[in-house]
Specification:
Number of strands: 6
Number of helices: 6
Distance between the termini: 31 Å
Length: 190
């Protein structure tokens, strides 16, 4: 049986704990994770959680957790990062006039994220933001057909840096180590 690190939950031979540098985010990042994504080996939400105590991951199949979140989310204090038809560019918004107390991110494939948005209608009532000019993704070990796609960790980092000017370099550094250690054929990379 394969041994796993108790802290990072990666195989002991791939343990990332030495590469984790804690960082303080200015606002909570709540990651709503599709059930199929939870045990996915290339899951970056887990990496973000290792770097910051303000990152919380909720499996969307956990009805109790989703109900509690629904009760605590409202359009005056919560916002969703998702490129919906009604979303606004994050970069063009002055958040000092309408401070966001918690950010929600959907973690899964684009198809899974769309399904989560529609399975939980309260998410559609929240202000939604998309990235008008995100950086190029450095997460080359996962395929996507969408241009300008970011990993969940990169989306959290970009949002926190854009809105609060947080130092998110520890997040990017951990993802870089993860990508460098990933053992897979070159065909599995973008």
């Amino acid at each position: 049986m394969r041994a796993y690190c108790d802290r990072c939950q990666y195989p002991a031979s791939q343990c990332l704990c030495a590469a984790v540098t804690p960082t303080c985010l200015s606002a909570p990042a709540i990651v709503l994770q599709h059930p199929k994504e939870q045990k996915h080996a290339k899951n970056t939400a887990r990496l973000a959680q290792l770097c910051s105590r303000k990152v919380t991951v909720i499996n969307t199949s956990d009805a109790d957790a989703m109900q509690k979140l629904r009760i605590h989310c409202d359009a005056t204090s919560s916002a969703l990062i998702y490129p919906a038809e009604y979303s606004r560019p994050l970069e063009d918004t002055a958040f000092s006039e309408m401070p966001v107390k918690q950010w929600l991110f959907l973690d899964g494939s684009w198809k899974q994220a769309y399904a989560m948005l529609h399975q939980h209608p309260f998410l559609q009532a929240l202000p939604a933001y998309h990235f008008a000019s995100p950086p190029d993704s450095a997460y080359h070990i996962r395929h996507t057909q969408k241009i300008n796609s970011l990993s969940t960790l990169e989306a959290i980092a970009y949002c926190m840096h854009q809105v609060y000017q947080d130092d998110v370099s520890p997040l990017y550094s951990l993802q870089k180590v993860f990508v460098e250690r990933w053992r897979a054929p070159a065909a599995h990379r973008r």
